[in-house]
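== Folding the chain ==

***
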Amino acid sequence: MDNFSLLTTPWLPVRFKDGSTGKLAPVDLADENVVDIAATRADLQGAAWQFLLGLLQCSIAPKRYKNWEDIWFDGLHADALHKALAQLEHAFQFGAETPSFMQDFEPLTGEKVSMASLLPETPGAQTTKFNKDHFIKRGVT
């Protein structure tokens, strides 16, 4: 497995001014042609925005609260964004060579469940057990 960086590898689906879509790395989001995130589902769209908001809040937060206004009016400049995110890059590297940031090496205990169970439209164990998945069907995702 090659190394993957959540900051510098283009993975984030975005929509451009001309209506086309593509993938961009978060470090390149100062591109003025980007108008929105183009996730395939509303919950993933919200998750992507939350990720980016948290990333920016942790990386470019001004020392004084009132200085947020400067960023609001002046916008994000590509060089400032690159410089701010460079400090966090080590924490967003994933790959076989080194452990990932905050990776837990303890073995997991408990029952194995499918990854689909993380999605909101997947019925829970109780619903499936009592065959009550009338509106939200199991095995669809």
Summary: Residues 4-94 form one domain. The mean pLDDT is 84.
